[in-house]
Amino acid sequence: MKHSIAERCLRKAATPKDPRQILNFAKWLEAGRLIPVNDIAVDLGTANTLVYVKGEGIVLNEPSVVAIEKRTGNIMAIGLEAKRMLGRTPEAIEAVRPLKDGVIADVDITEMMLRHFLKQVTAKRIFRIKPRVVVGVPSGITELERRAVRSSAMSAGAKAVYMAAEPMAAAIGVGLPVETPTGNMVIDIGGGTTEIAVIALAGIVSNTSIRVGGDEFDAAIVTFLRKNYNLLIGEPTAEAIKIQIGSAFEVGEEREMDVKGRDLVSGIPKTVHVHSQEIRGCIQEPIQAIVEAVRRALEITPPELASDIVDRGIVMTGGGALIRGMDRLLRHETNLPIHVDEEPLSCVVRGVGRILDDPQKYRTVLTT
After folding, report:
1. pLDDT in the model for residue 6
2. Tell me, what CATH number does 278's domain have?
3. Are 357 and 292 found together in one domain?
4. Domain boundary among 265, 284, 303
5. Mean pLDDT across the chain, nearest whole number?
6. Where are the beta strands (DSSP E) in the chain?
7. Which residues in 36-63 are b (16+ Cβ under 10 Å) and which e?
8. Is residue 33 part of a domain?
C-alpha cells in the first residue's frame, strides 16, 4: 500500500530517530510540563510568600522581600536573595518588604513580586494559560486593602482572584472539621498580624485580629539592645536572636548567645553576650497583647461553642507558634489544651490548597 509524500513525512517526523528524544519527552510528561497551571493558591504573608499548585502541592516558599535600584526603580532581586541584602545594601539599592502588618503597603512592588513568583511557577510549562488564584488574607482586612490584593494578583497575570480568611484557611490546612457545627478555635500568629477565630459551620463565628506578630518581637529585641547595651543591630540579627534564644515562657532550658552590632557610643563594632531570660523579658509586651486578644476572643464566643473548645482545645499555627514556650504560656493563661501543628508555617497555604482541591465543599469560605 502506497502512502502519499505528506503521510510519509508526517510519519518520519513523528518517529524520533534518537532514543534521547523519547526519554526527554517522557521526562516532560513526568514533570507535568505539558499540563498548564489552572489553579494556584497563594499565602501572601508579611514575612514569607508560599505558592501551592493544584495537584502538585507547595512549589514555592520565599521571603516577601524585594531589592530595588532607587534611581531607576528596577528590580535587583526578589525572595531569599533579596532577604540576604536586608541591612547590607549600598546607597543606590534598597531592600524593602512590600507587605506591612499582613496587608499590602506598596501595591507596585507587591505586584512585581507576585508576578515574579507566579512566573516561576508557570515558566517551565509548555502550554500557559492565565490561572485562577486564591489568596489567603487577614480576616480584619479592609475593602481598600482587599482591592490592593485583587489588583496586584490580576496585574501579575491571574484570570480570576478569590480570597479566603487566613484563620479559616489555617483551620482547613490543619485538618479541622470546619463544616460541622462543632466549635474549632485557631490562633494564627504571623509576621505582621495575629488572627484568632472560632469557626463552625464553615464560617467565622467570633474573630479577633490584631496587628501584632513576629515583626513586633524583632522590634522589641532591637529596642532592648539599644537601651541596655548601647548596641545597634538590624532586623535579620534580631530575627536570629528570636529564633535561637527567644522564648515566651520558662521552658527549663535557658540559652545564651553572642550578638554582634555597632556600639552607639564609640561607633565601633562590638560583641555582647545575651541571655534568653533578657529576651523573654523584652518581648513580653507583644506577647501579652496576643494573650489579651485570645482572652477577648474567648469572651465573645457563644457558650455552646465554648464548651466544644474546652474539649477540643485551641490549635496554634503561623511562625509565632514556633517561639519556645508560647503554647505553655497560653495553656497557663487559659487552662485550655493547646495544640501546635507540625508545620505551622505552611498551614494557611495548605488550607487554601485544599479549598482549590474541593471548591464545591468550601465554596462558602471564598470571597471575591
Report:
1. 45
2. 3.90.640.10
3. no
4. 284
5. 86
6. 39-44, 48-53, 57-63, 66-69, 75-78, 93-96, 99-100, 103-104, 132-137, 160-165, 184-189, 194-200, 203-210, 231-232, 256-263, 269-275, 314-317, 338-340, 366-367
7. ebebbbbbbbbbbbbbbbbeeebebbbb
8. no
| Cut 0.70: pTM above it | yes
Whether 218 contacts 242, CB under 8 Å: yes
Question: In terms of domains, do 113 and 137 share one?
Answer: yes
Tell me the residue type at 100. K
Per DSSP, the three-state class of 262 is: strand
Predicted pLDDT at 23: 53
For residues 198 and 224, membership in a common domain is answered with no
Residues 79 and 116 in one domain: yes
Q: Which residues pair with 48 in a beta bridge?
A: 63
Distance CA 215, CA 212 (A): 8
Q: Parallel, antiparallel, or unpaired for β 132-137 and 160-165?
A: parallel
Average pLDDT in the 260-281 region? 94
Q: Are residues 99 and 188 in the same domain?
A: no
Best mean pLDDT range from 4-8, 30-34, 160-164? 160-164
Domain count, the chain: 3
Is the predicted pLDDT of residue 114 greater than 50, yes or no?
yes
- Claim to verify: residue 206 and residue 242 sit in the same structural domain: no
Which pLDDT score, from 0 to 100, does residue 181 have? 92
Q: In whole angstroms, give the CA distance from residue 327 to residue 71.
A: 46
Higher per-residue confidence, 50 vs 363: 50
Residues 267 and 294 in one domain: no
> What are the cell numbers at 329?
504560656
User: Domain check: are 99 and 198 in the same one?
Assistant: no
What CATH number is given to the structural domain containing 108?
Answer: 3.30.420.40
Compute the distance between CA of residue 169 and CA of residue 141 in angstroms, rounded to an integer: 15
Q: What is the mean pLDDT of residues 139-161?
A: 85
How close are the terminal C-alpha atoms of the chain, in Å? 61
- Residue 1 or residue 277, greater confidence: 277
pLDDT in the model for residue 26: 47
pLDDT at 366 exceeding the cut of 70: yes
Domain carrying residue 239: 215-284
pLDDT at 128: 60
Residue type at position 350:
R
